[in-house]
Amino acid sequence: MRVLIIGAGPTGLTLALALRHRGIACRLIECRTGPERWSRALGVQARTLEVLDRLGLAERFLAAAHPLEGAAFHLPGRTSGSSAPSAGQEVRLRFQHVHPRFPSMVILPQYETERLLTEAGAAPELGTEFLEMQNGNALLRHQDGRLEWVAADWIAGCDGAHSGLRHSLDLPFPGHRYLQQLVLADLSLEGLDRARMHVFPDSPAPLICFPLPDGHWRTIALLPPDAPPPAQGSLIPFQRPGLTLGEPSWWNLFRISQRQVPRMQIDRRLLLGDAAHIHSPAGGQGMNLGIQDAWSLAAAIAEGPGAVALWAGRRHGLARQVIRATDLMTRMMTARSPLLASLRARVFRLAAGSPPPQHG
């Protein structure tokens, strides 16, 4: 067997399809026994749609997803004489088309992405867990308790932030955890235009709202470090004037981190996606970065070991750039000083082509 893939999230599923697309034998294992109904990742970007198009899947994704025209920034009121924006102002930003055929971003929950990739023939073996590496071979445990040793030319760890393969390689995962907590909820919501994502940046808990394909919304509130954790299912972090919120069908509280392995390849063992790099969800890069890791790795494996080594260096550098960019966006969103709030408002206006207010 050429490639053993550990982990059947979007990265592992894409790698399996991309390898088979090139006629390369692979085996995809997943410790879960069934699909997950809830997930954090949402945005599918144009470059990812281009990858999916090469696999013959772009039209299926576009049919299932909700397109976004752009973003709306809801800026807060100000007191007389301040340089912050006027009360209730909404600044709209239209996404630029970076691809001649595909929108810049569409919204599709991760579990739907996994469903479409699985239906396309990724064929994960559910209930099969990676345990350890010995002498270059992988030890697997099946759902019935049976153990199996597997030899492969390449072993690819697509098994997420708590990667078993990364731990077995004793690779560090340096970085840091942000002090802020994120509260996520999927719920019905009235009062916002569904053609855009909506950002409320300057409240005590900045809020981002994404329209989902099923008519609901994904709401994400970023709590300040000194805020007490809200009660399970609480809607308080999401409340804003003019919004009507329904009961959440899913609610989750977690912290975010940014981390990266020092290298993505050790001999014939490879790490990609969240197993190799994690970062703030700002900008919606995480799942897209993993899918693009997978597509480019399949091409490198088809070329040979030298191409894989080049892939590992190139993708590591790209991930480092994404981590820096998302960290900057996160710090900008969570900055609480009046000066930075004013700067943030000006940046949003400039991005939307709107001149800053004049003070006479």
Account of the 3D structure:
Pfam families: FAD_binding_3. It comes from Roseomonas mucosa. Keywords: FAD, Flavoprotein, Monooxygenase, Oxidoreductase. It is an enzyme of class 1 (oxidoreductase). GO terms for molecular function: FAD binding; pentachlorophenol monooxygenase activity. The chain has 360 residues and is an alpha+beta fold. The chain has two domains: 205 residues, FAD/NAD(P)-binding domain; 120 residues, 2-Layer Sandwich (D-Amino Acid Oxidase, Chain A, domain 2). It is 30% helix and 28% strand. It contains eight helices and 22 strands. An eight-stranded mixed sheet has the order 6-5-15-16-17-13-19-22, with helices on one face. Strands 8-2-1-12-21-20 form a six-stranded mixed sheet. Strand 15 and strand 16 form a beta hairpin. Helix 1 packs parallel to helix 4, helix 1 packs parallel to helix 6 and helix 6 packs antiparallel against helix 7. The protein is globular and about 65 Å long. The termini are far apart. The C terminus is likely disordered.
